[in-house]
Amino acid sequence: MLSFLPTPLIAVIATLLMVLNALFWVPILLLVAVVKLLIPVKAIRLRIDPVLLAIAEAWISCNSGWMALTQRTVWDVQGIDDLKYRSWYLVNCNHQSWVDILVLQHLLNRRIPLLKFFLKHELIWVPVMGLAWWALEFPFMRRHSEDYLKQHPEMRGKDQETTRKACEKYALIPTSVMNFLEGTRFTTAKHQRQQSPYRHLLKPKAGGIAMALNAMGDKFQAILDVTIVYPDGPPTFWYFLQGKVRRIVVRVRSLPVPQHLAQGDYAGDPAVREAFAHWVQQLWQEKDAQITSLLSAP
Fold it and tell me: pTM here?
């Protein structure tokens, strides 16, 4: 609607609306979260959690509003029409840009339960947003290197425990657990450093999705495999705010939960870990081929 304006002005308006939206909803979110914190009773939690989720969904809807106002993006989306709001999903997606988060929230908001992301622990210190993620019980993970774990063996297994505790809470009400298998955003430098066998993807990491499946495999309705493609190249967040992203292609497919893997002991059984790795690699080969096809389409 405002796409006729100069791009610097569009960026200013989009940024201002995004910030004001967060400053409006986050205090409300925190107020309700503090009530839940002060009264840690399951019956109270079951009543307050839907309120927190409704606030977050309203916040995301307002984000979609300023995006529609300031962006002129053409959306090419398939696979989201038959999703169920009152269910549990494990969502997987390739990761190229911070814009991915807005794309996922915009398309899936109120189609499935609120996406719960596993975040790096350092992100808890992000002004305003860190408090919002805490209030919504997004798990904060400490992803230590193998060298660090050798020096501090007591930290080994902490992320698994964080995942387990988070999933215990998520089992109470319908939830969508979000996982980026690559663990980080794709860049050419990372791709070359990894010597990734995939053309458009970094190597997948099976640990996070395996822990979620082990903890909640009996709850998940399906695995939603999401593929995001930016035909003009992955945009920076600032580029997106300027309204310069012309087209976004998204494909969503619903996959059955591999129960033979979900019921296995990923942490303690090498055979299960190998089976998970094979399953993830197959998933990634299909996604890589799909991205190639989407990028070559007219």
Answer: 0.90
Pairing of strands 119-120, 140-141: parallel
Contacts of 140 (CB under 8 A, 6+ apart): 119, 120, 121, 123, 124, 133, 134, 162
In this structure, what is the dihedral angle of CA atoms 104, 110, 114, 117, given to the nearest 10 degrees?
0
Q: Is residue 179 a contact partner of residue 91, using CB atoms and an 8 Å limit? A: yes
pLDDT at 146 (0 to 100): 53
User: What CATH architecture is 74-296?
Assistant: 3-Layer(aba) Sandwich (3.40)
Determine whether 183 is exposed, middle or buried from the number of CB atoms within 10 Å of its CB (0-12, 13-18, 19+).
Answer: middle
What are the tens digits of pLDDT across the range 220-272? 999 999 999 999 999 999 999 999 999 999 999 999 999 888 888 887 788 98
Spatial distance between the Cα atoms of 49 and 36, rounded to a whole number of angstroms? 8
CB burial of residue 258 (10 Å; 0-12, 13-18, 19+): middle
For residue 58, give the nearest of 35, 33, 30, 25 by alpha carbon. Answer: 25
Domain range list for the chain: 74-296
Q: Smallest Cα–Cα separation from 262: which of 219, 204, 205, 203?
A: 219
